[in-house]
Amino acid sequence: MPNSVAIVTGASQGIGKATALRLARDFSSLVLIARDESHLQETAQQAKSFGVESLVLPLDLREPAAAEKIVNDTLQRFGRIDALVNIAGAVPQIDLFEMTDAQWDDGMALKFHGARRLTIKAWNALKASEGSVVLLSGLAAWDPKPGFAAVAATNAAIIALAKAFAEQGIKDGVQVNSVSPGAVMTGRRQSFFEKWAPAHHLTVEEAIKNYPEESGISRFGQPEEIADLLAYLVSAPAKWLTGASLRIDGGEFKGI
Q1: How confident is the model at residue 146, as a pLDDT?
Q2: Which residue ranges make up each domain of the chain?
Q3: How does pLDDT run across 74-101, given as a tens digit for each residue?
Q4: Residue 204 to residues 98, 207, 215, Cα–Cα distance (Å)
């Protein structure tokens, strides 16, 4: 889209980076958000091959002031916001009975409150452009377990938040949806298996090989597959799709 601007949080790695590079094919400008500036610069450099201008903002979305800075800097540089894709957020996978209040607060601060504040701050610009918002949730919201209760609770809250934004968006002309990926092979998931496997008397290779069959799927998803869905949701053909919570999990969760 000519003269169009997409903000992508968590754009330094994994699904966020894959999404930024996918949106580089559709938007003329990108705003890339994450804490790691060097990795953000790598994403920006790769996006440049598509002819995209990128604004790199190394910020921690847990800080309340970050959202206002992102919106102000974006509007000062590009004058508009057409899409906001909220991906940033890592919630610790700690047992429900062991997780501390501080760990709960930290998980919610980035993935939930960071996305909430940024969406609110960007809302007026999104109204002006009749833009789109996507919030990334996760499959744990649909099937909570005590071992990752914070992940499940935070992701469920994000789904509810997206639906609340979507209700207002119908009045304001802003499209809002959420996406819940299943088992996607990212660097973060690799790190999880490196810790999980020894505790279960497995090699990392064995744990990774066994997981799909045990979960009822044929393989892990790839970040690029999630990125394609996110790109569709902020594209013109998807404009009538709003208030939805979409699962993309290889069939892992089969509930209705």
Answers
A1: 86
A2: 5-184+222-248, 185-220
A3: 999 999 999 999 999 877 778 888 889 9
A4: 25, 5, 17
